[in-house]
Amino acid sequence: MRPKPALLALVLIVLYVATQVLVWRQQKYDYVNNYMFEYTTPRMRKFLSAGHDALLSNLSLIRGIQFYGMNYPLFDKKPTMYEQFKNLSDAATQLDPRSTEAFRFWGFAMTSAERGDVDSYRLLMAGTENLSATQDLPPTPRRPAYGAVQTSVWKVAKDAGYVAQYELKNATPQWTVDAYEAALKSKECPEFVRRLKALAIAKMFPDPMIPISEMLVAYNQSNNEAIRELNLGHIQRLIAEQHKKFWDFAQAAYIDIHGASPTRIAQLTGDIQIMKSAVDAYYDVSREWNDEGTPQLFPNLTTLNPGPNDPIEVEVARPPQLPIDPYGGEYSILEIDGKPNLLATGPYLDERESYLAALEQGLATYKEKHDGACPDDLSLFTEETGAVVAEADGLGYPLYFDFENCRFWFPEISEEDAPPLPPYGQEPVVEEEPLPGLLPEEGEAEEPTPDLLPEAIDSTPEQEAESP
Amino acid sequence: MTEIITIGLNTFREAIRNKILYIILLFAVLLIASSIFLSTLALDAAIPVIKNLGLSAINVFGLLVAMFIGVSLIPQEVESKTIYMIVSQGVARWQFVLGKFLGLLLTVYAMVALMSLLFFGVLLAMVGPHDDTYLWMLKAIFMQLFEMLIIVSVAILFSSFSTPILSAMLTLIVYIIGNMTNDFWDFIRLESEKVGAYAPNVLFYKFIWSLCPHLDMLNLKKVVVHFEELPASLTYFPYGVAISHAVVYAAVVLGLSCVAFSKRDF
Q1: In DSSP terms, which residues pair with A408 in a beta bridge?
Q2: Where are the alpha helices (DSSP H) in chain B?
């Protein structure tokens, strides 16, 4: 009897399914063969592309973008996925060593994994080297000779510097500086890269003149007012940091000698012994960071508040030249909540000036509407002009309004008249009630107790706004 | 000379009626047009993707035309016995071979021209009219014409004594070998550093290398996308060595085809 075709078909299907189930259960991930496939050498990839390596590089880039989008949250949890992703980067960047887009994409994407920051930096620097290759340089197996330096090389080098500076948190500042220097070799490189390099150098070398010189070059090379102002702001901040170091040495000397913190700048500058001690201390520090072992004092910005096109000069101070507030004010020690705080008053004076100018504008608008009459009520003034009348400035000095002369004014910043509030960035200290029995009795003079060193002054609002 | 041109033009007219040509052209059009959509997946690399895909498509489909149409030109004439009519008219065998070569070359160049027009249309849509890109792409396509010159001559060589399938495979293998000669040269360099430049095996490798067509010298796809030149082109007059090599190689291969076909019995 001949078997029916339908029955035969059914038996075959069952057998097929059964064998497939058996195969599935025995299936194991072949790590060796699959890894061999994934870790193909660059030469083999080029060999297999048969002249279409640029296209294969682009397809690897597209695959890499898709892979990243699907799997980037798993890079830390599953190292295999990160390795596969990295392998795709090798494929794309080795098949087309002049592909800026591939280097930049993987340079950014690899930082999604914790272990990827260093890989990213290395890849971007390799890309910089490839894109910088010219006919004049002898070719190496990794860097072929090409006709000209690629104009987009600065982007790749800048990305490498960014990774070293912000992803690797400047753990190796030399890496950051090397990357930015490579970027600056390109004519198309914008000027802000020089500023980033200077900030990296400031972390690397304690000598302030090196980053300041970079900023000066950037300032002088630019015709853009906003950029000049930005560079000037960085220079002011770097100088102020050095001045703070000097004043810290002076305060430490004062505390050693007098057993208490100074409350006036004049207490420091009026004592030759203290100034000498501060200068010597600063000289010792600078001898360590200067290659020749020669000392230098802090830099002073001699051109305060320069105009848009004015040149600026920074010179290293010589004793007995004192620190000149780089913001154009004065150095003061203001007692805030019973503790002395060393401040550069320039930023606060600038802030007052711009704030008062805005209020003057509001007053002018009010007078126009009211035939030159001065406002009787400040709330009405605020309502009509929209100008916000603050209670105090950043130091806590109250804002006054002279109804007679119709002007707003702040009291002078002076060491004799301490402000009631701490400056911006500092929390007001809440006074705790002293325990009974510890208060001095009436008539008994309080003994001066040695105070702790003054709190470190936080960065000014301008510095905080400009910091990356 | 008249016979060669006549056979060439007839071959061209026959080839453009071949349906395979239009199927290949259709796929080429689809691939080049699809580069617009593929480029959207490539972030900043959209324009390089379009350029690379377009140039590679022109190259590959030119090769396919040479393979599918070229390898059957001579065998078809032999099988259909029309070769006897041609030869009896006083056309020499070498004239016949050169005529077929010319016809196939014209067909391939016509395909390349059509695909190039489409490619430039896509570029116009994506890049705009005022760009240096077009000149650079023209440079790459111009060099690809010489690459096709070699491939077509090789296809004619194999078709003059072999079956179509074998001829197609051998043409493809020669194309792949031609794009690897640079790597082969690196291998020879490494070997000569180990055993010396005049060692027997190194000399043998050099001999084999000199027999290969150097298609990578004519391959500008990777460099023109980045607006660059090949390093060798900056040494001699622009691409002179590569073009001379292509012309001479094709001439030698055609010479061999004529010899092979003249010895063939049919």
Answers
A1: A401
A2: 2-15, 19-39, 46-65, 73-79, 82-88, 93-127, 133-159, 164-178, 181-195, 200-211, 221-225, 240-263
Residues of A in Cβ contact (< 8 Å) with B226? 98-99, 150
B131 Cβ contact list (under 8 Å, min separation 6): none
Which residue, of A178, A209, A224, is where some domain finishes? Answer: A224
Please tell me whether residues A192 and A265 are part of one structural domain: no
In a domain, A254, yes or no: yes
For B42-92, the three-class secondary structure string (H helix, E strand, C coil) is HHHHHHHHHHHHHHHHHHHHHHHHHHHHHCCHHHHHHHCCHHHHHHHCCCC
Which chain A residue shows the shortest CA-CA distance from B44? Answer: A101
Q: Contact B42/A146, CB-based, under 8 Å? A: no
Q: Can you tell me the distance from the alpha carbon of A242 to that of A234, in angstroms, rounded to the nearest whole number?
A: 13
Query: A284 and A372: one domain?
Result: no
Task: Give the structural domain span for A275.
Answer: 230-342
Are the C-beta atoms of A327 and A320 separated by less than 8 Å?
A: no
pLDDT, one tens digit per residue, over B11-54 is 899 888 888 889 999 999 999 989 989 888 888 888 899 999 99
Residue contacts between A and B (CB atoms, under 8 Å): 82
Q: Kind of pairing, strands A407-409 and A339-344?
A: unpaired
How sure is the predictor about B193, in pLDDT bands with cuts at 50, 70 and 90? confident
Are A63 and A81 part of one and the same domain?
A: yes
State how far the Cα of A221 lies from the Cα of A238, in Å rounded to an integer: 20
Domain count, chain A: 3
Any idea of the CA torsion for B157, B158, B161, B163, to the nearest 10 degrees? -150
Minimal C-alpha gap between A43 and chain B (Å): 8
Partner B, chain A 309-328, Cβ-Cβ below 8 Å? none
How far apart CA A138 and CA A343 sit, in angstroms, is 56
Residues A209 and A273 in one domain: no
Sign of the alpha-carbon dihedral angle for B216, B220, B225, B226: positive
CB atoms within 10 A of CB A264: 15
Alpha carbon distance A268, B162 (integer Å): 102
> Is A209 a domain residue?
yes
Same domain, residue pair A325 and A193:
no
What would the DSSP string read from start to end of A240-283?
Answer: HHHHHHHHHHHHHHHHHHHSS---SHHHHHT-HHHHHHHHHHHH
Q: What number of helices (H) and strands (E) belong to chain A? A: 17, 6
* Shared-domain flag, residues A364 and A336: no
Whether A396 and A420 have beta carbons less than 8 Å apart is answered as yes
Provide block-wise average pLDDT over 10 residues at a time, chain A (468 residues).
Answer: 78 88 70 57 81 91 91 86 88 89 93 91 92 63 55 91 89 89 87 86 80 86 84 90 92 91 88 90 86 85 79 86 89 80 87 90 88 84 82 84 87 79 54 53 46 40 45
What is the least distance, in Å, from the CA of B171 to any CA of chain A?
A: 14
Q: Which two tokens stand for residue A354?
A: 């711009």
A61/B226 touch (CB, cutoff 8 Å), yes or no:
no
DSSP A402: E
B105: its two tokens: 């070359």
Residue type, A279: V
Enter the DSSP assignment of A400.
Answer: E
**What does each C-alpha distance from A212 to A199, A201, A208, A234 come to in angstroms?**
9, 10, 6, 8
Based on the fold, state whether residues A49 and A68 are members of the same structural domain. yes
Check CB contact of A53 with chain B, cutoff 8 Å.
yes
Q: Which of B43, B52, B228 sits opposite A105 (nearest CB)?
A: B43
Question: Residue A16 domain-assigned?
Answer: no
Any idea where the domains of chain B sit in the sequence?
2-179+219-263
Write down the pTM of the prediction.
Answer: 0.72
Question: For residues A179 and A162, what is the distance between their CA atoms, to the nearest angstrom?
Answer: 9
